[in-house]
Each structure stands twice: as structure tokens, then as C-alpha cells.
Amino acid sequence: MRGGMRPNTSRASRRARTAILLSLVSATAILGFLAGPTPSVSSQPKPTQRTINVAAEPTARPTTTTSSTQAGPLTAASPEAQPGGIGTNAGVASTAHQPATHGPASSVTHGSPPSTTTTTTTTTTTSTTSIAAQKPVGLIGVSDGHLELDGQPYRFVGVNAYEIGTEFGVNPGCGGQETDAQLDQLFSSLAPNSLVRFWAFQDAIATNVRTDQLDWAPLDRVFAAAAAHGQRLIVTLTDQGGVCDGNHWQDPSWFEGGFQDVYNSPSNTDGSGHTPQSYWNYMQDVVNRYKNSPALGVWEPISEAEASTCDGSYYPATCWGHTSCPDEAVAAAALRHFFDVVGAEIHALDPSHLVENGLLGGGQCGTQSGDYEYVSASLGVDVLSYHDYYAGTSMGGDQWNGIGVRIAQAASLGKPVIAGEMGLDAGTAAGCLTLGARSSEIQGKIRTQMGAGTSGALIWDWLPAPSGTCTTDTYPGDPLMAVIAAGPPMS
After folding, report:
1. Whole-number CA gyration radius for the chain
2. How many CA atoms lie less than 13 Å away from 311 in the CB half-sphere?
3. Three-state DSSP class for 299?
4. CB 8 within 8 A of CB 422
């Protein structure tokens, strides 16, 4: 409701279904622990000691939003000159870059609640598993405020498939597990040179359920399947509410520097216990491992960031819908700091690939009205995002935070913008849209929004089969898949 955003029942139902899936995931993970396959973790992990300096709060935002045509480093560097990566002792963390300090040094209190925060000096252990080195080809870049691929204009229609990194018995999992055949079915059903957005979270996907150490095997499987079909991935590293990633609500202090701290490690009981590293350290490891993969499309540091505060007793499990925004200016500065620091680090580690901000775009705390543009102006952000669950309209939202406003703000910054999630409930339940009606409505959304200047749309959410009788799921046999397979409309 904040910032004029209307309630979104589709999004609320999606959150509820996710919570139900998580309860099922926990039970399945336990069974996998008892009977799952032998995890592929190196028998001789290499520890890396990292001392992290806390970055100070960024300089104050301007009273009026400034525009910039800079979109970060977009020129591909020679992968042979880059440290780490697949095939070069990829699981071993590189020497950590220290986040830049913005303004005078300051003391920042991290995390909520304080009892769940450990020291910012940590020893981490990562797998040394590696696979054959591969040079990036078909890099996505930016030209004149729009995406390009190999120097040619590029637009796409793809899907979200958040759960495809799940591999029970190896990781805790998030959502259901797809077989190798189902992964092939997913990637082969898309138009050439499409994108699939998925969760590459430390907790549920990258940490071994038996050892609490990084295990790259499930992510390796996803990257290999995408590469085999010539498709690319938008790799999302965490989300706002810590769902499937430690259950820590990312409040202003997290964005101000708490992302450098360790939450929900095996030493405390605030979450699943499968996040032995800080977000900062994990981000460096995953970027170094996959930056040379031909399946890598775009990095997304966080999904649906909002620097709101979880209200009282609702922390951590039920923060969605129970948050407040005590100070919009402080929240905007915190988000800008996060993208300045994290985006710059990703660019430093991987100059070849773009960073997309994953914002929901509906007026959330820290991105209301012009603050969306202020946060997105960060040089750590190359591509802007909004999420569209508006029914009955091709350009949803109001005059402050609507889709049309976000497209105009992206144009002002000279940066591309995509619908990072687009979905409508459909199915056989009474009162629910039919699959055919949904297909037509989403096709209209894509045509209208791309006509207004967007570069892509990612439908929420691909599954091998529907999870209910009225859901946002798309799946084989759904007429919406034909719209997706057809790719972007002709200009």
C-alpha cells in the first residue's frame, strides 16, 4: 500500500504458497540427509581468512534525482586474464576486495536482532571442485539505454524458474526438484538466446545439507543444462526476506553494511543454519566461480530489495505484510549504498557481465517515487527491474510508482529496464482466469511494455506441472508457453 501501490493479491498468494513449499522442503531435506546421494564436496577444502572493513553510509541523496548515462563496465575483458572462474580452481575464494568507503568512516550497527550477528572476521571453507574452463561468448551489453547481444539489439521473453537449483540430499532445497530431463525440457522450450532467472542462494542451494560447507554441484548442474541449450541465466544471490536464505529480513542496517556479517550460521538457531558465510563473501565466491560460464547472462544481487523494518514479533518468519518505513530518505540511502558497494565489487570481479537491480518497483520502502531512480542511478546497477502482477491492465500502477513511471526513469538514466517477474493467476478453479485468457493478457502486456521501451520480460514461474488449480505457474501444455517460445514481438 505504501507509495500509492495497490494491494496485489497474486503476489500475496505467491508468498503464501512459498511458505507452504518451505515447510515441505524442510521435511524433504531431512529425508535427503538420511538417504540422499553422496555430496560432491572436496575432501581437502581450502580455508580463506577474510577481515572485512565496514563501509560508511553513502553521501546524502540529492533533493532532485540526477540522470546518468553511465551503466557500469560493459566491455568484455579477456577471461584468461581474470582470476578464478570455472576450471581455474574455481571453488577457492579469491582475495577479497574491500568495499569502498563512502564519506567519513562511521560506526554501523548491523542486523536484526543483534543476537543473530557474529563477528565480521570469518574463516570460510569452500569446495575446490572445478569443471572445464569456458570462455564467455554472446555477452549481453548496453547501448543507447537498451540491451544488446554481440553488438546487436537484444530483447527477450523468458521465465523465472526459481527452484531449479534444488537437489535434495545435497542441498536443503527451495521448492521442488527438477530432474535432468525436466531441466532439458525447460531450456529447450524457450526461444533461442533467452534468459531464465533462478535462485542461487547460499542457504538452500549452495550449501551442503550434511557438511554446512559450499557445494557447487547443484549450481554446476543448472549452468551445464543452460549452456547445453545455448540459454543464459539471471543469477539471483539472495532475496529481501531471506526466504530460502537464512530467514533474515534485510532492514536498513543490512543494506548499510550488515551484508558483510554472518547470519544463521550453524552456531545459532535463528534460521536453517546453512549460511556459514556472509552475503559479501558468498557473493565473491559465486561470481568468481561462474563468471566465465557461457550460460551466465546477468547478475542480480538481491530480489525485491526494500529497506523496510520488520515489525516486532513478526520477525523473521512473517515479515511480509508486517513492515514499516520509518524514514524513506534513510532507506533510499541504504539501498543506494548497497548497490554502490556490491555492484562495484561484482563489476571488479567480473567486468564482462551486467548487474540488474531486481527491484519490485511498486513504491516499496527506499524506492518510492523518485527514489527508485536515485537508487537505480548507482554505477553498480546496469539494468533496472520492476515486477508486474497487475491484472486487467497492460501498464499497471499509479502516477507515482507505476510501470510507465519506471520506464521513463530508466530512459532518463540511459539504462535498460525489464519486467523481472510478470505473472497472473490462472487455472481451473472457480473464478480464476482461464489459461487461454491469461496467455492473451500477458501477451498484451509484453507487446505494450516493449513498445514503451522495455528490453525483456520474465514470466513467473515455470514448473514441470501446475502446483494448484489457480496459480501463476506456467508449464508444458500451458498456452502461455507458446507465447514465451515465440520470443519478443517484432518491432
Report:
1. 21
2. 7
3. strand
4. no
Task: Give dist(CA 219, CA 208) in Å, integer.
Answer: 12
Residue with the three cell numbers 523481472: 420
Task: Supply φ then ψ for residue 456, to 5 degrees.
Answer: -175, 165
pTM: 0.78
Which residue, 221, 227, 157, 226, is CA-closest to 186? 226
Residue 154 CB coordination number (10 Å): 21
Closest C-alpha among 171, 231, 179, 223 to residue 201: 171
Lookup result for grid cell 513478526:
314
Kindly give the parts of the chain with pLDDT less than 70.
1-137, 264-273, 491
CA atoms of 485 and 442, how far apart (whole Å): 13
Residues constituting the chain: 491
CA 232 to CA 458: how far, in whole Å? Answer: 13
DSSP, collapsed to helix, strand or coil, labels residue 254 as helix
Contact present, 225 and 180 (Cβ < 8 Å): yes
Q: How far apart are CA 351 and CA 78, in angstroms?
A: 9
Q: How far apart are CA 258 and CA 250, in angstroms?
A: 9
Element of type H or E holding 329? helix 328-349
Predicted confidence (pLDDT) per residue in 96-121, tens digit: 344 433 332 232 222 332 233 333 33
| Cα 35 → chain centroid | 31
Superfamily of domain 2-33+143-486: Glycosidases (3.20.20.80)
